Each structure stands twice: as structure tokens, then as C-alpha cells.
Amino acid sequence: MTSPKISTGPLPASSKIHLGGSLHDIRVPMRSIALTGEPPLTVYDASGPYTDPDAQIDIARGLPDIRGGWQRLRGEVAPTAARPVQPADNGFATGARLTPAFPVRRDPLRATGGRAITQLAYARAGIVTPEMEFVAIRENEGRIAAHSRDGEGFGATLPDLVTPDFVRAEIAAGRAIIPANINHRELEPMIIGRNFKVKINANIGNSAVTSSMEEEIEKMVWAIRWGADTVMDLSTGRNIHNIRDWIIRNAPVPIGTVPLYQALEKVGGVAEDLGWEIFRDTLIEQAEQGVDYFTIHAGVRLAHIPLTARRVTGIVSRGGSIMAKWCLHHHRESFLYDRFDEICEIMRAFDVSFSLGDGLRPGSIADANDAAQFAELHTLGDLTRIAWERDCQVMIEGPGHVPMHKIKANMDEQLKHCHEAPFYTLGPLTTDIAPGYDHITSAIGAAMIGWFGTAMLCYVTPREHLGLPDRDDVKTGVIAYKLAAHAADLAKGHPGARARDDALSRARFEFRWQDQFNIGLDPDTARAMHDETLPAEAHKVAHFCSMCGPKFCSMKISHDIRAEARRQQGLTDMAERFREGGAIYVPVAGPDAEPVA
Amino acid sequence: MTSPKISTGPLPASSKIHLGGSLHDIRVPMRSIALTGEPPLTVYDASGPYTDPDAQIDIARGLPDIRGGWQRLRGEVAPTAARPVQPADNGFATGARLTPAFPVRRDPLRATGGRAITQLAYARAGIVTPEMEFVAIRENEGRIAAHSRDGEGFGATLPDLVTPDFVRAEIAAGRAIIPANINHRELEPMIIGRNFKVKINANIGNSAVTSSMEEEIEKMVWAIRWGADTVMDLSTGRNIHNIRDWIIRNAPVPIGTVPLYQALEKVGGVAEDLGWEIFRDTLIEQAEQGVDYFTIHAGVRLAHIPLTARRVTGIVSRGGSIMAKWCLHHHRESFLYDRFDEICEIMRAFDVSFSLGDGLRPGSIADANDAAQFAELHTLGDLTRIAWERDCQVMIEGPGHVPMHKIKANMDEQLKHCHEAPFYTLGPLTTDIAPGYDHITSAIGAAMIGWFGTAMLCYVTPREHLGLPDRDDVKTGVIAYKLAAHAADLAKGHPGARARDDALSRARFEFRWQDQFNIGLDPDTARAMHDETLPAEAHKVAHFCSMCGPKFCSMKISHDIRAEARRQQGLTDMAERFREGGAIYVPVAGPDAEPVA
């Protein structure tokens, strides 16, 4: 069955195209936007098969297995018996309250002989994996040359074109990761690194208070439709094992989680009762399901907690507060820190990437860049070294609430102390005074920190601080962050970024309204806003809109000026002969006036 | 009659208070927000009498004359016979199509004996006017000391407290202006300068295609309700004289216009037919009505026009394109440039401030910071000197579409070439690819350029490039710009800015939901978003929201940790005794669960 609730179908004027590899048998999806006035525009496409009319979407069967064969070829992974699902995995939900298990069962893959099968291990061994070639092609968006080279990169190295070996080298250096659990075979690989396009993450997940399985899948599909590059499932409450299965089997993008949330559910929400065994079991449970990256709050150390005592908003990371409570109760370092080696052993066996959590990120402007925040950041740098020794891929989580003048220091500290591992930041929010608009307070900080070098931006929705985001909030948050990430690419001088701006500006200047809508990040909203005042089809080629009306359209007047200039030799004799030209005045008879001669 | 269409009444939990002057008989309005957990918070209030329950609002009578007496006392202005209204002033509208004249007639004031009665002239003479004391009190927002001092001001000088003489000195230096036409007697004066709070402007105005008089007044009232510091009436089409009268008589904030628009209407939209006489007549017409600042595109010189020939989006300023067309047609410098002296004579007789227009601002990322844009900026610097010699107040218009890495150069060039006259910028928009979301693409650039030193930010609404903004677009644009301006104040290190953030963060951390909503820029939206999932009154004190639910609220856990810490001597013996403390787990029974013991 195709669920009627899942959003499918191409975006306006768009079709799915696939580019092949030269090293591996891969098909890299792109979105081609048909234009009326110039050749089609090829753009990055995170939306997966859902926007492909040729794809058969059935959430009960999941997306096709496109990666399973890749590791088999390498012969370094083998199917193993899956850890049996336990009642606690779904919060002891039963009967009607239990979300049904995903219908298709598959034995999980695992590295054989305790070897590391991570992208980092292969990169260091000089091997260009299919994932690496896939992202190399994907990053170029069909370009065969640089579009423009103009920007301030703050030390970023952005090649005109990304090659598979450049990807390999960046991963080997730890500057980039491809979050790709070997059990997430439905994944279309993507890369997170300062020398690639800035990415964005969207959070979904039910809370104990609201929402269901279909809703969460649709939120994921909806988020990637508008451009989310990865999705974190932050579900809490019951059924999270089964809901996660449904999400991963239907996800073409990397899925991240915070395993601590499920572990806490398993001990009935009593932080003090958490322990290594139950946490370890949860890591394996989720790794076998195919989670691509885990947020691990191993940087919250006992000695950091007193540093938060005088904060205005204390500890605002869920995982951070849970671990701080645990540390105080037992008065010892957390099992995440003590057992970090053993965590690495699990991560490397499935190639789950670390997202080292910022449990002590500031929750208010007043707490930004304080001792607690930076003490944890330095610890994350130490843990990065350890993870790298085990061939584990690592990114570092950061910001929260940070005023503009303190943003760059975050990037500089992270680059210095975390050895250029990719930075993954929430916002930052640049003021605390706009609840209901924190997608904007944070898009400001996100664009800036993305420019400075952050590799992935975790979105914030309008509902932040107020409640669980709904479908509209998710879309608004994703679009706000796509434009922030793009503004960052432009400022860094990404060689391909400006192609889309320039195409849209040409369409705008030439009054190709349909093209202007379709090149934009949200064609539906742009078209609807325009048509509210000028619905007639004739106005899709009109040389004005309702903002200025026909007489006062500066672009129309610019055309008059240029048309004249074209008929002239130069400016000197233009003025005289200009009088022969036509007037620009067009009588106005209301919305249906047609100003074009 | 009180028009039912006008939005009146206080914002939630807010009351209007007035602070008196020590030098002059003035009443400076402030907004006091009542809080449940701490003393009331006093904030800047641009909303005028409309949010004062004691005020009698009747748009047919207009707002009270609070400034008329001020100039009389100085005895340097006198009533004169008003220029007779001509049919062309209202686009020859007649009968039912004619917007009725504003009912109350008043002889316009004008400087006597050709003297300059501008705030700049008085400031230079060492006179502290009522307007200067008014804005000094207003800028301090009821503070009697600095709240915090932390930021990067890029050369801005922000005193702990603003004194009347500091205001006078800043105006005398040309670094700030108080746009206050002597005929706008309803005005609550405000100041625009780099060493004061960053201000925002909202544009309203009908176009030939849509909207009416009542709508425009309500748009103005609606814009200032949410925080617009000035409003530009960009009306075109018919009835603009009468609509402007209605707007100014009901406006407590400075009103700006682009007189060229009305002049063009008077010549039937034929740019070539424009001339000095009709423009001069329009300046006097609008100066007598009380317009506080005029955008004058005198910087568009004949020699600049060829510099736009290879632009992707040509000339995107309405006024700029009109003047460029005129210059080419007549092949000479514009009458705005040639007659600049005579324009100054009119401005100084009414104290209309110059907003020197950026007719050649870039309309796309591709055109940012180009030769045309900066050539005009340098001309504006020359004109600033001339205006200052005539004791005229001046601000400079800037940006448009500018990628992040090119924003600071705009501020630096402006400071250098325009002698620190206040900068007033549109956005800038940091990418072209998000039509429908340009309030966000531009809030990013606006926050940054405000931080760098821009004194006033001209808002952009979601409808930009697509149509004339409606009431909702106006509110969204204003809120987006209020938060951008505030983010800029925070980053500059404004001594009062963080008070509001800190108050909101305390409310947030203490789960004072009502306070959190009420301190925010848009209490209505924040409350509505929260209540959508947790409507019960009990949840207004609940220690969680639907985002994380009770078990996973990091702030609640932080409180548990602190409560414990308070009971302890220190951290060393805390762990042991912590076991005596209560668990944090609260059974979840859906949205009505009450987690507080």
C-alpha cells in the first residue's frame, strides 16, 4: 500500500536525473529544474525517491537496498543474528498501544574479525569507496567547472570540482565524515565537512506528550523534500524502537539519534539508574537497526558541573542534564567517558559516526562562551583523538544561544581544540527575546557560523522553546536553514553556490515569473504569494508585480534604458535620439492592466 | 468616530508609563511589562497612543498636537498660508474615487526669515531642544545604570546612559538625526544614529494595483504596534496627497516619503517630463503636510549609468531607475543634483531630514559592491557636506542584495566617504534564492550590518519581489527586523540591550510561561504556539512543554541538580547525600500530566 499521508511527487518543473560513477556502479540523484528562458538548472537533491515519479513508494516495504551489495563486495562484513527485541525497547507498550514492528526483517550486518569497516579506515588505507565517489559526484551538482570564485573562506579549501580522491583525503584527515551505517542500506550517502557544501539537519521525533509513527515518517519525508540533509530521530516515550525501524527503512538520508534517551526510558526515567550495560545494549540495538550517527555526551565531566552553577539557564541539553545528574549522584565520571573505548569498538563495527554532544551548550545569551561550555569542548577534542585512533568517524556538536560578537570564537576554539573535526551546531540563536521566531534568531547565527567553517547546521523551528514542531514548523525551519547554509556557501566562496542565485536573478530581471518561483527554495509559497494579488496567467509574464505596479517597476525601466542603449552607439549621442524612443508610461486600469507593448 | 479597523489596546501584561523631562515639559512614553516573578520590565515603546487605554483614538481628528508649542516657544517659526491642494496632487481623482481630505485643517508652520530651524542648527548653537531631551530619556528605557557592557562596537561609542547633551553633541557632529518636521506636531521624537539603539523602518503605501486609506493607516498603526520606529509611505497611484495627510495626522512616528513618486504621477508617469518646478512644488506640498524625511536620489549621476550596463539586475531602485531614464533622455545631470542647494533651502525651513537615496543599490548577489553602487555612495558623501553646510540633517541609504562577506565593506565605505552620517540600509539580502522568505535572507544581513554600525534597518517582508505586503506580512517583517536590530545592539555591547534577554531567560528557566510570552517580541504568537499542544492553565506553570515532555526537560533536571546543590556543603560530599534526594521521574499520562510534586 502507498500511504496517502506520505508526500510524494516532484517539485514544480523538476525532474529526477541520475549521474553514474566511473569507479563504482552507482546512480547519484540530482534535481533538474526546467527553465523557460535558459537551459535547465541542476541542483543538489536530498529528497530521495519520494520526488521520483518512477519510484514505487510503500512505507511497509521501505526504500530499495542500494548499499547492501557495496560492503558484500568488500567481504569484510557478514550478517549476524539480530539482538532480540525486548519489551523495554518499546517502553513496554502492548496491544493497541504498541506500534507494529516493521514488516520486513533482515539480519544485521557487522564487521567480521573485529576489524574497522568505517569510511575513515578505508580512506586511511587509500581506498575510494562507492560512498566516497557518490558524494564527490553529488557535491558538484552536475557542474564541470567552477561557476564563480569569490568569498572569504577563513581557511576552508574549496576545490573547483570535488574528486573522489579529494573526498577520501578529507575523510582520512578527519576533516569530513560520511555518516553511513552499514545497516542503513537505503542510504544515499552525503558528506559533512568544512570543505564541502554546508549541510543542515532537521530534528523529528515524538515526545511522551504527542505524535505517532506515520506522522514521524511523513515529518522525515517532508523535511528532506525541502532539503534536510540528515534527520535526527529524537523520539522519547513508548514505541521508539519500532518507530525508529520504520523511519530508517524509509530514509534516504542519514539518521542520527541520542541513544541515551532510549536508555533512560528503559530505566523508567530514573537517571541515577542508568549504567553501562543498558547503554551498551542500546547502542547495539540501534547500530543493528542502521542509525548513522549517535550523539554521545561523553564530554560532560564531573568537574564541569560546578561551572554551570551560576548560569542563568543552567544545563539546557537533555542528554547533558541527564548525565550531569548521574555524575553528581554517583560522584564519578560518566560511563560514557569511562567506557569511551568500548563505545568506539561498537561504532567501528557498524561504521556509526560519533556526534560528540555539547551537553553544556549555553541556553541563553548570558551563558554564551562560558567556562563550562569551553571546558567540555576541550574534552571533546581529547575524545576525538581517541575515536580517530579506533578509525571512528567524528563530528563535534556546538553552539546554542550566542550573540553575534561571540560566534567566531566558537568556531576558532573548535578548530583549534578539536583538530578540524567537522563542527555541527544548533543555530546559534543570536537573541533570547523572540519566542515564536527562533528559526530567524538562529538563522542569523547559523549563516554566520556556517560561513566561519561549521559543516552542518542543526535547524531550529518557530516552535522552539514552546512545543513540539508540527509539519509546517518543520518546513519553515528547513527552508530558513537551507537559505542560511546557502548564504554561508556564497560567503565562503563555494565555486558552485552562486549559479542558483544568478539563475534566479536573471529570471527575475527578465520577468520569467514561473522560473523565479521554480528556482527558489519554496516554489509553492512564492507562487501563492504572487498569485494572491495577481492570479491571471497573463501576469506570469507581466513586467511588474503588485508591489510597485507597472509604472514604477524599476526593472522594466532598466529594460527601457538598455533597449535604448543597444540602439545607440554610445552615451554621448544617446540623449538626442532617445526622444524618438517610446514612452514608459502605461495607463493603469487596475490589476488587469497589461503593461507590455 | 473611532474606526473599528484600527488596532488599539495594550500588548499583553503591558501598561503605558510616561517619564518627565528636567529641562522641558515633556512626557516620554514607555512600555512597562508586568512580570509574575520579578519587578516590571520597562522597554522602548514606538507604538504611540494606540496602546494607551486612556487615549481617545479618532483617526478623523488625528493624534494630539504635542510639539506645536515647542517651536512657538522658540519663536522662530510662524504659520503661513498652505499651498492650495491641486487636482494633480491626488492624481485627478474625483467623486467616489477621491479619498476625502483630512477633516481638520491647520496652517503649516515655516521658519521665519529664512533661518534654519533644524535640530542640527540648534545642536550646533548649543541648544538642547525638547526633542533632544525626549530621545535621551527614551533611549535609556528607564535605566539608571548600565545593565551589561560586553560587545564589539567597531568604533561605536555607547555611553552607560544617554544624556540630553550627548544627543545634542551627536547631532551637531552629524552622527545622528532626529527626523522631526515642524509640521508633524503629533510626533513622538526618536533618534537615528550609530551610538543609539538600532532602529527599524517599515514601508507601507498603496500601489496603483491595490489598497485604500483606512488600510494604510491600519498598516502604519499595526507596524508601530510591533515596533517599527519610522514608517515610509511609498504610495503611488491616485489619492496620495490625501492618504498621506490621514497617515501623518495619525502617526506618532516619523514618516518618510520619496517625493519623486508623486512628482512622476503629476506628469502622468512620463519620466522625461519631470522637471525642477514640479519637483520643488511637490517638496513644499509634502513639507507643509509634515513629512519628516525625504528620500532624494541626487546621487544618480549621468556618468554612473553606464556602470550598470553589465549588471545582472540593472537598476532596482524605483527612484534610481526613474532618474537614470531622465538623465539619459536629457543627457545631463539630474535636477536633484543640479538643484541640491535649493532642495536644502526647503528642507531647512521645515526641518525635513535628507535620506540620500541609493538609486544604484544592487538587486542581486552578482551586482553587490560594484562600481555603480560605490560611485553613487561617494557622491552621497559629497552631498552630505553640502547639506550640512545648510544645517540640514542627513542620513544615507544603502545595501540591497549583498552576500555576507561583502557586507562590512559597505559599512566601512559609508563611514569613510559619508563622514559618519547615519547609515540606513535595506536588508541586505544575503542570497537571491528564497522568494517568500526574504524577511529571513535579509534579517541575516540586517543584523550583521546593524552590528557593524548601521543606524536604521529598512525591513523586508516575506512578500518582497512577489507583491504588495499585507497586514500579516507587515507584522512578520517588523518582528524579523526588531530581532535583527536587537541582535545588533547585543553584539555592539549596548549597555541596556541584554536586560530584556536576561529577563526572558530567567522566566524561561523558572517556567514562568506567561512572563516568557509577555517579554517576547510577539506574545500573541508565542502563547498561541504553546497552547496549541498544552492549552490547560496548569501548564502555564508546568515544568515542561510538549517539545521534550516532563521526563526530558533539561531545565527541570537542572533545578533538581541545583536544589540538591543548595542542600549540600559542596560537591565533594554531595554524591553520597544526593541519594537521599527525590527521583526526577514523573509518570507520563499524556498532555495533562502534572510533573510538579
UniProtKB/TrEMBL annotation, chains A, B:
It comes from the Bacteria. [4Fe-4S] cluster binds at C545, C548, C553. Keywords: 4Fe-4S, Iron, Iron-sulfur, Lyase, Metal-binding, S-adenosyl-L-methionine, Thiamine biosynthesis, Zinc. Residues 10-77 form the ThiC-associated domain. Its cofactor is [4Fe-4S] cluster. It catalyses: 5-amino-1-(5-phospho-beta-D-ribosyl)imidazole + S-adenosyl-L-methionine = 4-amino-2-methyl-5-(phosphooxymethyl)pyrimidine + CO + 5'-deoxyadenosine + formate + L-methionine + 3 H(+). GO terms for molecular function: phosphomethylpyrimidine synthase activity. InterPro entries: ThiC, ThiC-associated_dom, ThiC/Bza_core_dom, ThiC/BzaA/B. Pfam families: ThiC-associated, ThiC_Rad_SAM. Substrate binds at N203, M232, Y261, H297, S317, R318, G319, D358, G359, L360, R361, E397, Y424. The keyword 4Fe-4S applies. Its EC number is 4.1.99.17. Signal peptide: none annotated. Pathway: Cofactor biosynthesis; thiamine diphosphate biosynthesis. Binds 1 [4Fe-4S] cluster per subunit. The cluster is coordinated with 3 cysteines and an exchangeable S-adenosyl-L-methionine. Catalyzes the synthesis of the hydroxymethylpyrimidine phosphate (HMP-P) moiety of thiamine from aminoimidazole ribotide (AIR) in a radical S-adenosyl-L-methionine (SAM)-dependent reaction. Homodimer. Belongs to the ThiC family. NCBIfam families: PRK09284.1, PRK13352.1, thiC. This is Phosphomethylpyrimidine synthase. The lineage of its organism: Bacteria, Pseudomonadati, Pseudomonadota, Alphaproteobacteria, Rhodobacterales. The gene is thiC.
